[in-house]
Amino acid sequence: MQEEYQLRINELARKKKTEGLTVEEQEEQSKLYRIYIDEMKMQVKTALDNDGCKPKE
Q1: Residue 52 pLDDT
Q2: Mean per-residue pLDDT for 40-44?
Q3: Mean pLDDT to the nearest integer, 27-47
Q4: In sequence order, what are the residues at sequence separation of 6 or more whose Cβ sits closer than 8 angstroms to the Cβ of residue 29?
Q5: CATH 1.10.287 holds for 3-50
Q6: Which residues, 6 or more positions from 6, have their beta carbon under 8 angstroms from its beta carbon?
Q7: Structural domain boundaries in the chain
Q8: Do residues 1 and 36 lie in contact, with contact meaning Cβ atoms separated by under 8 Å?
Q9: What is the DSSP string of 16-53?
Q10: pLDDT at res. 1
Q11: CA proximity to 15, closest of 33, 1, 29
Q12: 17 versus 51: which is more confidently predicted?
């Protein structure tokens, strides 16, 4: 994940705790979380594939 995305996720999380987010910021946060989750899933899948793990059939 790009470092700028991680920094923005953290920035929005801090703001959410202290003063709250606008609707636009909530939507942005949602999109950034989805990007983060999708990338983590891809990394886990790649690691498992490289280790020879196969899904159950």
Answers
A1: 81
A2: 93
A3: 94
A4: 9, 12, 13, 16, 21
A5: yes
A6: 36
A7: 3-50
A8: yes
A9: HHHT---HHHHHHHHHHHHHHHHHHHHHHHHHHHHTT-
A10: 66
A11: 29
A12: 17
